[in-house]
Amino acid sequence: MADKLIIFDTTLRDGEQSPGASMTKDEKIRIAKQLERMKVDVIEAGFAAASPGDFESIKAIASIIKDSTVCSLSRANDRDIARAAEALQAAQRKRIHTFIATSPLHMEKKLRMTPDQVLEQAIQAVRYARNFTDDVEFSPEDGSRSDMDFLCRVLEAVIKEGATTINFADTVGYAVPELYGNMLKSLRERIPNSDKAVWSVHCHNDLGMAVANSLAGVMIGGARQIECTINGLGERAGNTALEEIVMAVRTRKDYFDLQLGIDISQIVPASKLVSQITGFAVQPNKAVVGANAFAHASGIHQDGILKARDTYEIMRAEDVGWSANKLVLGKLSGRNAFKQRLEELGIALESETEVNAAFARFKELADRKSDIFDEDILALVSDEEHAHNNDAFHYVSLSQRSETGELPYAKVVFTADGKEVTCEGNGNGPVDAIVNAIDSKVQSGAELLLFSVNAITTGTQSQGEVTMRLSKAGRIVNGVGADPDIVVASAKAYLSALNKLQSKTEKLNPQI
Ligand code: KIV
Ligand code: ZN
């Protein structure tokens, strides 16, 4: 019987550390449900001590998710661990993941601790965490740049204290596959009680080798857990991409010979959901989930595919969920059909009032766009969630004029804390005019770092999804808005980013 490879998803924790990728509680719940539907083994739902918002999100996910283990990160101290345990209380399966840096550089410069102090703190942390659950993971942060003798001392000691998973972290993406795999192999060989823990890999993608390093950790080092994120989301160059790991192990079963529990038909829906919520578009040539991942343009390839698919295809697009882009509803669809489709997409709106409001938006959209796809429904529900949360600003309407030789003009109506505001502005283009109009009232003082438009589905009727990334006083946020009119989508995206800037979610970075 082949060994099981545990898929540990950290989109909601390490992925969220990516600047601008912060998510609301409701957004995290939607992603967690999708991860459960995809049958990931462990969901790292956040870092409970980072902020009250993180704590509440983990708590909510712990009470909703039944099939996957729910995990919280915590630094190696009692306060963080107790907070993680409290957030995870309702979970059917819970894991506390505690970590401390072990490299000479991090210990000396960041922690200002001696190796003996770090060893002692790691032991205490695992001992304390075991009071709350039998499932405790320990990570030596910056493990790949740590001294091997010291790592052996620390890891042997934490396994003795009851750590059940040891996660060998390549925190700064410094590792190369063969060396990383061999380090792990050597640790497992040298540590006398190494067989008492599952070994895990956690790689960052700074040199573009996160997936290769993780797989080398499995094949050379004997790891049986991979930590990864949807679309490879994460700080700097990101984390190991879940979809690439899963499809590599599955497609090359002849080589890896490992069992996976993942329902691969949920991969593309998960990718689209994460991209839509975070505003991080997926590059077209991204493996498995990029729009071009299965597109064959050259005549020779197309000819080959028509004769026999496997001439140029090693995976089938429909197997990973690419068929999701199908017509589901239209103008004549009723409330029941709409509600049923929401359920099929795993979207549970909290009350009938919310379903009614979403249905009203659906009808408005169906009046302007004849074919409504799953992606349209996902965007619509996101809009609906924003309308119902405590956001300060909500879009109402706009009119806009641009003509060759004329300075573009926009008039925007929005609500600020419930009061209707009308504003006007000019700009060097329609989007600039909208931003200037809104800023004439809001005076955000934010800098626009990124503006992007993507068609949600195919065809010129498609809704445009606009992402705007704003920066102010060191904080970076992404706002997303969707509409068949991309100028309206831009206004929605700008207001959504302003809402995020306004929310005072001060978060600790776990590595600090
Ligand atoms: O990259 C890292 O070291 C981490 C740890 C907290 C596991 O994310
Ligand atoms: Zn990390």
TrEMBL record:
The pathway that the record names for this protein is: Amino-acid biosynthesis; L-leucine biosynthesis; L-leucine from 3-methyl-2-oxobutanoate: step 1/4
Location of region: Regulatory domain: 394-512
What chemistry does it catalyse, as a reaction equation? 3-methyl-2-oxobutanoate + acetyl-CoA + H2O = (2S)-2-isopropylmalate + CoA + H(+)
Residues annotated for Mn(2+) binding in this entry: 14, 202, 204, 239
User: Keyword Transcription regulation: yes or no?
Assistant: no
Instruction: List the molecular function annotations (GO) for this entry.
Output: 2-isopropylmalate synthase activity
According to its UniProt entry, the function of this protein is described as:
Catalyzes the condensation of the acetyl group of acetyl-CoA with 3-methyl-2-oxobutanoate (2-ketoisovalerate) to form 3-carboxy-3-hydroxy-4-methylpentanoate (2-isopropylmalate).
Q: Which PANTHER family match?
A: 2-ISOPROPYLMALATE SYNTHASE 1, CHLOROPLASTIC-RELATED (PTHR10277:SF9), HOMOCITRATE SYNTHASE-RELATED (PTHR10277)
Protein's UniProt name? 2-isopropylmalate synthase
Origin species, per record, is Undibacterium umbellatum
* Gene that this sequence comes from: leuA
